[in-house]
Amino acid sequence: MTLAVASRFARRELRGGLKGFRIFLACLALGVAAIAGVGSVRSAIQAGLQDQGAVLLGGEAQAQFTYRFASEEERDWLETVSIGLSEVADFRSMAVVRREGGNDRALTQVKAVDDAYPLLGAVELSPQMPLAEALSDDGVVMAPILADRLGLATGDTLRLGDKDFTLRAILETEPDDAGGGFELGPRTIVATAALDGTGLLEPGTLFETEYRMLLPEDADLDALEAEAESRFRDSGIRWRDMRNGAPGTAQFVDRLGAFLILVGLSGLAVGGIGVSSAVRAYLARKTSVIATLRTLGADRATIFQTYFLQVGALALLGIAIGLVLGALVPLLFAPIISEALPIPTLFGVHPGPLFEAAIYGILTALVFTLWPLARTEDVRAATLFRDALSSARALPATRYVVATGVLLALLVGLAMLFSGAIELTLWTAGGILGSLLILVAAAFGLRALARRVAPAARGRPALRWALGAIGGPRDEAASVVLSLGLGLAVLAAIGQIDGNLRSAISRDLPDVAPSYFFVDIQKEQMPEFREIVTSDPAVSRVQSAPMLRGIITEINGRPAREVAGDHWVIQGDRGVTYSETPAEDTRITAGEWWPADYDGSPQVSFAAEEAEEIGLELGDAITVNILGRDITAEVTSFRVVDFSTAGIGFVMTMNPAALEGAPHSFISTVYADAEAEADVLREVADAMPNVTAIGVRDAIDRVSELLAGVSEAVRWGAAATLLTGFLVLIGAAAAGEQARTYEAAVLKTMGASRRRILASFAIRSALLGAGAGIVAIVAGIGGGWAVTAFVMETSFAPVWPSALGIVLGGIVATLAAGLAFAWRPLAARPAQVLRARE
């Protein structure tokens, strides 16, 4: 027989409708829709960032400098290549409001602007007025959250550094607010010229300058970037343009989207279990049809092709439904999503994520339907009139096993390609596969345990019937444990990761972190600063260090990116300090520190872990651009740097002679009792208004807020996985309805009451749900530990409230599904049921 004959058979079979395939379609559609929806939202954000890249950047191109303004030569070139130029300085400071009972102060991110700002977009103020008017005569505008925190109204006076300013308006909209990345303090905008006399932009203080440009229509961005880097290669210039207006935001969105899609793949894996169960149940009902075809001469290939085409057509239908949902749902909720996000979005039908979701759906359908279909080939025609599939061997022919392996490898490979997160994808794939293996083993173990325990339940009929059903030959235990267990395992793993990360940030970190970071302390202020903080008995420890920032431009004479790739140490500027002797707690892992009176060529001690990741060795030469000057230093030692304590930690420490002559300030960490922190801050701020204090607890709260948003998004992704598992659970309950009807009929005939039969069904569901939940906890804790310990590299402790909630959820879910399909079996008349089985 030919494929054409199989196609004709398949078309005739499909005329019977979708009975038995509703769960099949729902599982595929939901999994594909979740992936397509997340991808569509991510593409909408990426399109918005690209479309509004120039506005987010503040210009069509930007040159950025650290701790300095552009030199005359640099500014002349920037003016030559542009048709509009705006200078912006960005730094942190303390906003202070003087009151009789004591001063109020808060950390703020200050943006100092010139008359040309903004080149693109508009600043919206309340009350409405031009920005230039608001900033005239020492005026400032301020974010509403900061004004509320300080109790300020328009017309009130505040202090920045050593100078008073007047709040003229509340900042409602800042066009380039998404381009700056993570900020610890709310925004204040002030005119750059008004900062004279504040002491906030002294040489060596921590600030950045950005020169935003409008370019001629025929400007070549690649050529301009190459010229800037060539002309000012040794000055530390950093170039960005509108093609990547908000790189930090874009990278965050891309990584979060990739992670959510991997969570969506977990949902597809759960759906795949439902797909496999639906195909198996469908083929079991078709044994008489298959037997008839075999007796009429249909060969194994024709049988396989007939049902492969049927299932394939239905799979394509489910995938198509999922793609439509994944494309339309984000469009329907576009206004709500756009309003909730602080970045621009451009919603539409984006083909890329839909294609990606379709590929995932097709491969998942193939992986989970191939074995049930293939096993029909190994069953003789005579046995097909009985339960053919249960009598077939566990594994199909070798070619199908190999094909399944190839499809799995292709699925994981494409996931790595599409997500761009190879390590995370492998962890996810390994976690799903490991969870499935654990769940399969648990399902068999649960059945064996039920058979062993059942005799001990004499005198408790409902419990014994439930245990007997679980330990029986049907696949109910496997279906429930696999479908619900994997969904719960994903949710459990996310709960464990989230809980441990939150604990590390909000509980463990404050115990080891300092109370404050004080920055921009001038060298001549250090004696007074030390006297203030060390004279306070509530201060337990003070650490101070010179603070500069530099960009690693070359390693052994080669561009740093060629050697280290995209390692975080190479991206952007890094903190650099100098020290004559190593600190008391310094642990040198290789090499030697320079002599105390060393004044030769520059030497550098590098963080050991980062050096190993980059591939540095003792004797290598590192070129660091600091304040526009290249300093090439020999790597003479490696040392352990622990960034997890939020204390002072520098990747690079140089000998004093290499850096002492450069303008710089000092940074200091102060460890104090929580109740005394406010007093310490007040004393330092009153004595040195130019010094900025960054409260570690405030920073922790800010990080926790961001983490809460990420966790919420991930939970929604996991919810789709759990919903898919619940659909599979419903399918399993529906498939077992006929068996429960027969069971209820037999029990009624033997004198059992409906209440006792219902109790048996409920106990069975609760035990299966508890079993699935317990296994999910084991898999979830294991997965959470692996990600926390090896990917995030932090400590792990089980989060038991989340774990216990998973068990409870499993019990409730199985009870709901089991009892929903218990009423008809209970209502069936035993005589009719038993007569029909004769």
UniProtKB/TrEMBL annotation:
<dbReference type="InterPro" id="IPR038766">
    <property type="entry name" value="Membrane_comp_ABC_pdt"/>
</dbReference>
<dbReference type="Pfam" id="PF02687">
    <property type="entry name" value="FtsX"/>
</dbReference>
<feature type="transmembrane region" description="Helical">
    <location>
        <begin position="304"/>
        <end position="337"/>
    </location>
</feature>
<feature type="transmembrane region" description="Helical">
    <location>
        <begin position="477"/>
        <end position="497"/>
    </location>
</feature>
<feature type="transmembrane region" description="Helical">
    <location>
        <begin position="256"/>
        <end position="283"/>
    </location>
</feature>
<feature type="transmembrane region" description="Helical">
    <location>
        <begin position="799"/>
        <end position="823"/>
    </location>
</feature>
<feature type="domain" description="MacB-like periplasmic core">
    <location>
        <begin position="25"/>
        <end position="229"/>
    </location>
</feature>
<feature type="transmembrane region" description="Helical">
    <location>
        <begin position="716"/>
        <end position="736"/>
    </location>
</feature>
<feature type="transmembrane region" description="Helical">
    <location>
        <begin position="397"/>
        <end position="418"/>
    </location>
</feature>
<feature type="domain" description="ABC3 transporter permease C-terminal">
    <location>
        <begin position="262"/>
        <end position="375"/>
    </location>
</feature>
<dbReference type="InterPro" id="IPR003838">
    <property type="entry name" value="ABC3_permease_C"/>
</dbReference>
<keyword id="KW-1133">Transmembrane helix</keyword>
<dbReference type="GO" id="GO:0005886">
    <property type="term" value="C:plasma membrane"/>
</dbReference>
<dbReference type="InterPro" id="IPR025857">
    <property type="entry name" value="MacB_PCD"/>
</dbReference>
<feature type="transmembrane region" description="Helical">
    <location>
        <begin position="424"/>
        <end position="450"/>
    </location>
</feature>
<feature type="transmembrane region" description="Helical">
    <location>
        <begin position="757"/>
        <end position="787"/>
    </location>
</feature>
<keyword id="KW-1003">Cell membrane</keyword>
<keyword id="KW-0812">Transmembrane</keyword>
<feature type="domain" description="ABC3 transporter permease C-terminal">
    <location>
        <begin position="719"/>
        <end position="825"/>
    </location>
</feature>
<protein>
    <submittedName>
        <fullName>Drug:proton antiporter</fullName>
    </submittedName>
</protein>
<feature type="transmembrane region" description="Helical">
    <location>
        <begin position="357"/>
        <end position="376"/>
    </location>
</feature>
<dbReference type="Pfam" id="PF12704">
    <property type="entry name" value="MacB_PCD"/>
</dbReference>
<keyword id="KW-0472">Membrane</keyword>
